[in-house]
Amino acid sequence: MKKLLIKFLSIATMTMLGNIAFSQTGTRNPFGLVYQNAITENVAGKVNIHPVTYQLNGLLIAANVYTPAHYDTTKSYPAVVVAHPNGGVKEQVAGLYAQRLAELGYITIAADAAYQGASGGTPRNVDKPAFRIEDIRGMADFIGQYAGVNPNQLGLLGICGGGGYALKAAQTDKRFKAVATLSMFNSGVVRRNGFMNSGVATIQQRLKQASDARAQEAAGGPVAYANETKTTDEQADKMPFDLYREGHYYYNRTHAHPNSTFRYTLSSLLDLMEFDAATNMDLINQPLLMMVGSKSDSYYMTDAAFALATGTKEKELFLIPDATHIQTYYVPQYVDKAVEKLQDFLKKHL
Question: Is the pTM of this model over 0.85?
């Protein structure tokens, strides 16, 4: 029998790390979950949540494992790794989809990225693609040894920025037998060119700022951050893109969590701006499902990556009717559509 040392975080520790986030309804959740219909207590015979920590490259990673109803450690279950969006944490949309998949019979894991959320690492909010890809592999390491998990039935779901990193992880990590993305965001391309190529004219200027920020860190100076300024509702309302406007309200109002932040170290741009999730897409030979809202202004990223996935015989681009990028995170009718599609996809390929 596989043995695994699992270090459970107490509710008191979760309170310290998550400061007890508020849900949509304004009620406190003991696990810090902020999505609708989130688990509030573990009940025998139902889907349960297990806060855990584990080591990854010398850092302590904080994660939530969801187990299906009537979970039995002596049985064999398929599992799914869920990667959260840029700036997001495991208690938001990643947790919602992890819980919904557990309700379908999967053991799932959603972890905070290293240097982010409740996971370890300093300086805080480092956002380097290599780290995010390693986070996904680390979740696979952990859940593959979890009691009851069949490591030969491992799926991967990446959401927003986590979707881009999921594509990159799956290109080389063949433990993932099926790969899905939701509202995929190609972080490197956007950090380099701006959303919808709105920042091309300032590429060299921003690279100089990132280079200077790294030099400042190396000299023992303060860590410089991008996107650290708080956005007001009035400013958000004037934003030209649905993604950022709706993202403001999702992350700062309806689904706010104290560990979730848009900021990242300015020096991270040295790595981000050379990254493109859509390179080497032909290395993905696993079944691939890419889901995106039909009204999402980030659709172009999914479309471009999907077209380059020439190495798999099983791939599908699924449009969620009338949904924008952020609406796929929480609007019940759109979440239901995505989960139904995931259910068919994972049942077929896991």
Answer: yes
